[in-house]
Amino acid sequence: MPRIQNNKTKKTPPGWDRIEQKLLELTNKMRDVENEPHEGKRKVEALWPIYQIHHERSRYVYEMFYKAKPEDKISRELYEYCLREKWADADLIAKWKKKGYEKLCCLQCIQPKDHNYGGTCICRVPKGSLEEGKVVQCQACGCRGCASCD
């Protein structure tokens, strides 16, 4: 979650105005999801949209720094500002840079202590090795498959 703004305004890096609108839009979307009723849902199901928006916001910053066209890229200073101010998840982005984790949905899916027999989440299993027509959904974040080889 981004830090709460106070009366002391910090100087934002150049280029912030280009990405500010999208980040604020995603923050407002997150706020709406947090406030919507969740009666009739399991506890974990109520958190899935929050994880998805968090992932989307981090992916946006990642793509703007690493994948965007040269004229659309953000500066390193702005990228580090976004990470420092918690607009994006630095740990998740660090995993996306590693081979095999390019599509990782959340960090809970790769933590062995959270899964039976010290493995990883079912969403990390390639779809080709699962039964035909079987729908797989992660219990932690609601992902339907984030293996990089899919």
- What is the strand tally? 0
Rg, nearest Å: 17 Å
Average pLDDT reading: 87
Q: What shape does the CA trace take?
A: globular
- List low-pLDDT spans: none
Approximate helicity band: 40-55%
SSE arrangement, N to C: HHHH
Protein structure class: mainly alpha
Strand content: under 5%
Keywords: Nucleus
InterPro entries: BUD31
Protein name: Cell cycle control protein, G10 family protein
Family: Belongs to the BUD31 (G10) family.
What would you note in describing this structure?
The chain is mainly α. The chain folds into two domains: 16-97; 100-150, no CATH class. The two termini are 30 Å apart. Helix 1 packs antiparallel against helix 2 (43-67). Helix content is 41%, strand content 0%. It has helices at residues 16-35, 43-67, 76-84, 90-96.
Concise overview:
With 150 residues, the chain is mainly α. It has four helices and no strands.
Give the helices and strands, then pairings.
Blueprint: H1 16-35, H2 43-67, H3 76-84, H4 90-96
Helix pairs in contact: 1-2
Organism: Tetrahymena thermophila (strain SB210)
InterPro entries: BUD31
Subcellular location: Nucleus
Features:
single chain; nucleus; 4 helices; globular; BUD31; mainly alpha; Cell cycle control protein, G10 family protein; 150 residues
